[in-house]
Amino acid sequence: MYPFGKGLKRYVPFLFLLVPLVLYIIFYFGPSMMTVIYSFTDIKNVPGSELKFVGLQNYYDVFFSGNSGERVDSIIRTLYFMVIVTIVQNGLALLVAVIINQKLKGDYFYRAVFFLPVVLGVAVVALVWSMMFDPLSGPVNYLYNALFGYKDMFFGSFTHAFGYIIFVQIWMYMGYSMLIFLAGLQSVPKDLYEAGYIDGTSKWQSFKNITFPLIAPSFTVNMLLSIIGAMSTFDIILATTDGRFNTRTMAYDVYKETFRGSLEMGLPSALSVVQFLIILVFVVIAVKQMRKREVEY
Hints:
Blueprint (H helix, E strand, L loop, with lengths): L11 H27 L18 H8 L3 H33 L6 H14 L1 H11 L6 H10 L12 H26 L3 H9 L4 H12 L1 H16 L3 H6 L9 H10 L6 H31 L1
Keywords: Cell membrane, Membrane, Transmembrane, Transmembrane helix, Transport
Main location: membrane
Organism: Paenibacillus agri
């Protein structure tokens, strides 16, 4: 009944939990709460500067003053980025996971290949694709020219740069989603497929009525990770276009306003809170819908 003993020893697990709790409060919860507080002030990134509360002025400035038009465009662009990345990344990851789960020869090699971009890091990925998409000497432009007689500016194009960033984002993180789907697929009991085969079900019917319902928790996890990751992405943008060529997102705006803009910290804090609220809304909706599917099956 008491695996850690009786008396004071019963509190040993709580002491172990206390350390990560303190670290969480210091490095995550505390700064998050300060960001919310700062969003209602005119705080500046200057030691010794005075601080006073300005109410909702910073939130008003996010949408209705200065370069608010660019911020609204960033919000719309971020939502577009999130939708495309979430759908395409999870769709491709599920397809690859299903194929690898067929016990192909060398399946561990394929897993490593698809997961490799995840461990490379943003700097390496950005460097690789900047070289691949080099408009003068990149191999992709040679391929475009040879097949279609067409050349592109890639990360230097006002119309196509954001699309290429979406491609790089999906390429980098699809392997992570694939492993989660693969773990879910391997947990499905084989006797269910055998029973379905005896009943004469096709492969599509087996996937629809057996596989898909049983890997619904994997879908939930991947959807949440994709939404949060896409809404928070700024590092790939920073490393490839630095926000130029219509590629700014909310996360990049927070970075830019904080470290490259004015010394005011209230406005980027308000923008961070708005970003958090948008992420929260989509996460709650996604969890609610995906949980329904899990309960149904």
